[in-house]
Design a protein that fits this description.
2 copies of one chain form a homodimer.
Chain A lengths: L1 H7 L3 H8 L7 H13 L6 H8 L4 E6 L5 H16 L3 E6 L3 H10 L8 E5 L5 H8 L5 E4 L8 E4 L1 H14 L5 E7 L6 H16 L9 E5 L5 H10 L7 E4 L2 H13 L9 E6 L2 H5 L3 E4 L2 H17 L8 E4 L2 E3 L12 H5 L5
Helix pairs in contact in A: 1-2, 1-3, 2-3, 5-13, 8-9
Chain A binds a DNA duplex through helix 2 and helix 4.
Chain lengths: 344, 344
Amino acid sequence: MADVAERAGVSTSTVSRTLRGLSTVSPEIRARVEQAARELDFAISRRAASLVTGKTGTVAVLVCTLNSWFMGSALSALGPMLRAADLELNLYVVPDMAERAAFFERLPARRNADALLVFSFDLTEEETSRLDDLGMPVIYVSQHVDGRPSVYVDDVAGALSGTRHLLNLGHRRIAFLQAVGDSGFSFSSSERLLGYQQALTEAGIPLDEDLVVTTPFPDKHGTARALGQLLSLREPPTAVFAEHDEAAVATIRALRAAQIGVPEQMSVLGFDDHPVADLFDLSTVAQSPSDIGRTAGELALRLINDSDADHAQHIVLPSHVIPRATTAPLLQPQSRGQEQTGSP
Amino acid sequence: MADVAERAGVSTSTVSRTLRGLSTVSPEIRARVEQAARELDFAISRRAASLVTGKTGTVAVLVCTLNSWFMGSALSALGPMLRAADLELNLYVVPDMAERAAFFERLPARRNADALLVFSFDLTEEETSRLDDLGMPVIYVSQHVDGRPSVYVDDVAGALSGTRHLLNLGHRRIAFLQAVGDSGFSFSSSERLLGYQQALTEAGIPLDEDLVVTTPFPDKHGTARALGQLLSLREPPTAVFAEHDEAAVATIRALRAAQIGVPEQMSVLGFDDHPVADLFDLSTVAQSPSDIGRTAGELALRLINDSDADHAQHIVLPSHVIPRATTAPLLQPQSRGQEQTGSP
DNA sequence: TTGAAAGCGCTAACAC
DNA sequence: GTGTTAGCGCTTTCAA
């Protein structure tokens, strides 16, 4: 910076003021400084700046993996959003329990970020309270934590509308397919099940535990097995509501392999509006991970800049049913169902 | 840090030495300092440290999106790798041309990272040379740039082996399906086409331009259209080599919709070993994005720590053919082909 | 509107 | 093995 100051014939203070865009610099000097900076390829060292301002200009993001549609979409939206606010994005990838323990033990983000975004973890009480005294706003994304700022989709309401959609089509025997990932049940999973149950209850349909089946995911044959349970019931379902689209697609494939027409003999509904949903013409309950990412970023910004902001605010994002070709009225084959015939 | 020093009854230098793990601290003092640090929840400010060491302790990563299997896997491996080396990961997401221009205009990573990893961009000469005077090692990942450190899979060799596999199965009419994404042809695309052509040439088979078809991707009906071209040739292919697995899966679905048996009447080969490949039992040429990510991180580390290291080194990672159920010998139905029958 | 000087929190060089 | 001191590159008073 001293070089720039010398070249422009001003003090470092003036260079600093110019580069920060303060209006207290006369136009001619500003021009001189900017040119000098350009000629010397000078860029501010945020680290030196943060030392004196006390702000790091960085948002930390904690994720367990990036290898999913949800994470990919959310971060692809969060990144540019933060960049627009001139914030750096510091990524912590914590794929297993060991690394997770290490993260919470050392909390490397401490003093190195202005806020932390925690994505889709199911944190223990202990972990949550550990984050409480991190000395920065912590935003919980895609999960709700009482008393802490959170951003998420209302999975209960989403599953409720999805199930209502099936009910409105005349289905009464509706199965719910839980897909358990490597890390055990997720938060969304139980919320979605809850919405399903609520819808049945409000329709006066008694809950039948046999209609709720669980399969490991991803697992090539697990879905077929789960389906087998349903199809061998005394009164099999006429519709399957899968916890997420990928499980729904696996269901469709298993059904077609068993020569069971979708949606003629079985309606299938997913959740997420994952890209495969469009590909398979799957009816689904859509959520928008990019909205989640962006909204979380905006909340972070607000909490950073405004210490009076509500530090327990929950932002609940909407979901909506997208009827496509895999749900149809009960016992009443539709023309749109025939487009599907013979297609894999 | 002063607080910790006071609490432990030592100087800040000793605290610094202890926390950095230097061996020049006596065990008893070390214990005192560590306890004091723990009690005060003290963590080093990397930003203050970097000011004096000149190292930022950060690796910057430039990506255009995170929303792909490749990026997700690569970063999910890179993250923990960097963490193990006690480096922060600073992510720059540059989804469109405007943001890209802004990035190269301002180069926000300048002075704020020790190295830059550029993922899967097709950079212009100008952009590359702009990065040259960034003052830090720049590693090109999943692309090769002459004279700069690069990490990538040998797409030519991969496509060569893939095509040879089809040739060895007796196929002589082999189509190549190019899948053009939103951003136009990618580097890999043309390399893979080249490998395909090389294999045919070495087998003494003249190149037939009609066998190379192009489809937009993702596009629900594009693949069927491209397939239509192939199937209406005077001498249709008996095998299709798709540029990547997702296009291969689309091809399989289009073929099955048209009642053309895979692999009985048409072999289909993909590239990548994307998760869908396993799901669809798709034969493919496998690459490992996580290896790419990890290797790139290791190279970055080497270039950061050893200024004598070769700054033009290209690391080429292997790919290998994984035969699954979608490729079979020409005109000679196999038992493994029958497993497929009736399955969607 | 600009400059001089102090100091952010840390590490490194040197002395003990 | 430990403490003292100087200074990394910035921003921020404060004075001019």
